[in-house]
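Hi R.,

Here are the chain sequences for the assembly we discussed:
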Amino acid sequence: MPTFRTGPRTRLLGAAAALTALLAVTGCSSGGGSQAQDDPNEKITLTVNLFSDFGYADLYKQYEQQHPNITIKENRADMGAHHQNLQAHLLAGSGTADVEAIEIGQVAGFQAQAPKFVNFLENGVDAGQWVPSKTAPASSADGKVLFGLGTDMGGMALCYRSDLFKAAGLPTDRDQVSALLSDWKAYAATGKKFLADSPNKDVRWFDSGGNLFSAVIAQAPTGFYDAAGKPVVTENPAVRQAFDLVAGAIKDGESAGIQAFTPAWDTGFQKSQFATVACPAWMSYEFKANPPTDGGTWDMARIPGGGGNWGGSYLSVPKSGKHTKAATELAKWLTAPEQEAKLFTEKGYFPSDQALWSQPDIANHTDPLFNNAPTGKIFSQSAKDLKPQPLGAHGAEIGTALGNALTSIEQGKTDADGAWKKALADVANIVG
Amino acid sequence: MAASVSAGRPARAARAPVAAHRRHRLDRTLSPYLYIAPFFLVFAGFGLFPMLYTGYVSMTNWRVDVPGSQGQWVGLENYRKLLDDPFFLNALKNTVGIGVLSTVPQLLLALVLAHLLNYRMRGRTLFRLGVLLPNVTSVAAVTLIFVQLFGRDYGLINWTLGLFGVEHIDWQAGTLSSWTAISAIVTWRWTGYNALIFLAAMQAVPFELYEAAAIDGASRWRQFRSITVPMLRPTILFSVIVSTIGALQLFGEPMLFGQQQDPTTGGSQHQFQTLALYSYNQFWGRFKYGYGAAVSWAMFLLIVVIVGANLIAARRMKGLDA
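And here is the predicted structure of the full complex:
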């Protein structure tokens, strides 16, 4: 569920998967999937293609126990390769897995392919399980086909190192931190103060400009696309404003300049190279896997500016799969409220099921990973505050291009204006 | 490969009885072709056809996100667009730059290494096999380790440089620094391979030449320069061509060296995006099939031109049967 998780290992798999996709497209497709006979006891293997760890391992075991004839096999590729492969396989009409994950930043690119997926509305799914902002992007334009079942969602928060805050003379109590960092201007200003007052000069304010930008732009009413699906990167002032805000913070030395979702980023967590991270719910795996070696602790406050969504996913069932019926049942089960609740309390993935947000075991959940911060309350509030942004086919790639531009400022290669200009050239290449 | 066509005449057929003469004559004329057929069939299916088909696609406007664009003929329009595509020209520059930076030191090092391996010494076979080891490890594994070595904050190379007072280098950031790092990976993988090829050629050099030179009082270095290198010229030419082709197709190293969220961009400002990466980016990242195919074909034509120039240059050099 991590939005942009691109570990080296998964990238390898991605390359292999891309190769397979290449063969699938160049070779002739063998036509649509052969529908298996609907013998409920037939021994079958269901394949599930994901782009990161969705925390499903225990759930698979449980499902296999309930359905002794079913074996579940999961494959992972990296974020970009996964979606490219899915596009290519849909096009070729073969090669898709039984269940395929789609990330929210990419889902708009699949809307035109909606007829190639199983329509969950015809398979006993009530769309009211999710808020319309979750179901709309995974529906056909006329709303008659729902091809993605919501798994988790971003739910934004600000993770901060209370020990480092204390050393720099900043408040450590999460309510005080939330009040102090009420918006992004205050956040950037406090970052300057932190750098000046922190006794440890190796610690920066945040991890990477690209990551911060993702969090800031997620709160704008309109992002890279307008409601009509037209790219508006140059026309929408909010994009440039978010870009300039982050570029300014980078210029002030607030960024550690570490590319997110790389081994260096993991090291950054371990070696305390930054004091804050804009953290969607799904990012908690990273905190868990890389505790600070100096014994410091993370805490969690409200995200500056409030609201916004970054990441979150869907499960889909392409019609070209071998066992579409069994796969539909599995996807429904994995995204059912009971399982989603479990994934949050055990793995930290915040459910997109709206009914769960008020359910006591979710709303009152606290996480020892973040000094027992009320993660349930923080993410529920963020989810309820969410004003959905129109999505577009190349949203994820545009975000990456702007993130790259910010990286080049971090690398000292150019200034804000130069980076912006280059980013626009990239965007033109992406949408043109 | 084409040279093997005439080499495969089965001698057995010559002793055939008269009665079956005709069948055997057919056997004699046909069987060589049958023997070599598998290669050409596989090549036609997996080499020639995809290449020609890519050529066809490169002259269409095929884009996945534009329904009905498959087979939309645009002639050479995509190639014209390439000429004023700054990303393509940048990728071309990167490819040639990294190519020179990796091929030249690689071949020089290989030559020296082969010369050393040619000496009589203990455990010679072990060393000779050892130099091939980097080549049999997977490119992905090698690159991932080099990415760690070239890490900005905690990489071994920056740490070592730090001992000599050199500031930490952000290897991915700069054009020259990223080229250097990628060239180091390529050089590490391919030097041993080329060394073995040079070594094989060196062993074919008549020993008498060295003996005579030694009697005339030539030093080891003089022997190397005046005997070994001239005798090795055809082999060196072969290595140059093969390495050049490899360098122009460079893909895995820059892809995995990049720490960007989209590894096909080759750095934050495309500073190490090679032609192969750009082609992949357009084809699989942006789904511009027509344009991506044009990039691939431009790459192919470039290789043909550069290898051709190589051969012509080599022919002009004296004493060379290229």
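Residues 85-316 of chain B form a domain with the MetI-like fold fold (CATH 1.10.3720.10). Chain B touches chain A through 35 residues (CB under 8 Å).

Let me know if anything looks off.

Best,
T.
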